[in-house]
Amino acid sequence: MSAALSGARYGSVSGGLLFGLLCVVWGSTWLALKLGVSMVPPLSFAAARFLGAGLVLLGVAAGRGRLRVSPATVLPGAVLMIGVNYGLMAWGLTRVQSGVASVVNFSMIPTATLILSVFYGRVRCSAGAAAAVVAGAAGLTLLIGPDFRIGRLAGMAAIAAGAAAYAWGAVLTKERPASDPLALAGWQSLSGGVMIALAAVMAEPVGSRALALLAAGMAVGDLAFLTLASAIGGVVYLMLLARWEPGQVAAYAYVCPLIALAEGWAAGARLPGRNGLAAILLLLIATRLSLGATPVRGDTR
Distance between CA atoms of 291 and 113, rounded to whole angstroms? Predict the structure, then answer.
């Protein structure tokens, strides 16, 4: 949607408040995600999460009489932001600590957004942009460090690839405005959930045992929390994306990893060592450089 339309419809809610809510919601999901994929096959768990979130959002949108969104607008987010990103993230979290996973994800999104924004002509290619890419690569390399295990490396690579897909989906969604973020988030969640469910059917032992695991008490509570977080976060993100440039919205990448790392530490996860702290610092520098990229003058898309 255009910035004017978004401002008229949601003008009573400030961008800063939306941004703060987004950081709290998305930063608090990583420990719950790690718990969920430790109890239920990862793709099945992710599919249930987004199918549930999509149904909730579309139910609310239907009550407001605003269900209509063009397939061309839904498709980039459904495939890239939900299907590819969260499918790979769920699988990667079975091999990586939740705090480390959040750092990889939240540093890769703004860096990939910067690269794509340069490609699409939304920001200028500069020394700062190149430095952001170098710092990001160095941080990821240092984060792997001496603990070079194929499973851990594969998990981090899956999370990074998913984050890059998410960034691409965000840039394409910005190019295809929708009249209502609630309906758009609902269709994206439902369609992406279907995509992940199809992948689960092909890759996991989906059957009565998987359903029983999903129905277990702790899994139900965890899934309910993540479904609600997906519904709220998805709408808030699209509201912000309608007001701000993708690189500005991606500033949540500063805050969310700190929330996720604090949660993981409180739950007993090992604190990062010197290499880990240096890697996190480099990735945050890469994030800052990415978000500081200069928009192309006159580009108001």
Answer: 9
Note the Cα 240 to chain centre separation in Å.
14
Cβ-contact 214, 223 below 8 angstroms: yes
Tell me the helices (H) and strands (E) count for the chain, helix number first: 15, 0
Please say whether the dihedral angle defined by the alpha carbons of residues 239, 178, 250 and 165, taken in this order, is positive or negative.
Answer: positive
Tell me the β-bridge partners of 123.
295
Q: Which of 177, 191, 186 is nearest to 67 (CA)?
A: 186
CA atoms within 13 A on the CB side of 157: 7
For the segment 103-119, what is each residue's pLDDT rounded down to a tens digit?
Answer: 788 778 877 877 787 77
Helices 85-93 + 30-39 axis angle, to 10: 70
Instruction: Return the axis-axis angle of helices 252-266 and 15-27, rounded to nearest 10°.
Output: 30
As given in the structure block, the two tokens for residue 292 are: 């500081």
Q: Which residues contact 67 (CB under 8 A, 6 or more apart)?
A: 58, 61, 183
For tokens 């002509």, the residue is 121
Residue of 293, 35, 37, 287 lying closest to 158 (CA atoms): 37
- Which residues on adjacent β-strands are paired with residue 295? 123
Phi, psi of 13 (to 5 degrees): -110, 120
Phi, psi of 268 (to 5 degrees): 105, 5
Does the structure show a pLDDT above 70 at 213? no
> What is the pTM assigned to this prediction?
0.74
Is 144 within 8 Å of 88 (Cβ atoms)? Answer: no
Are 136 and 286 spatial neighbours (Cβ–Cβ below 8 Å)?
A: yes
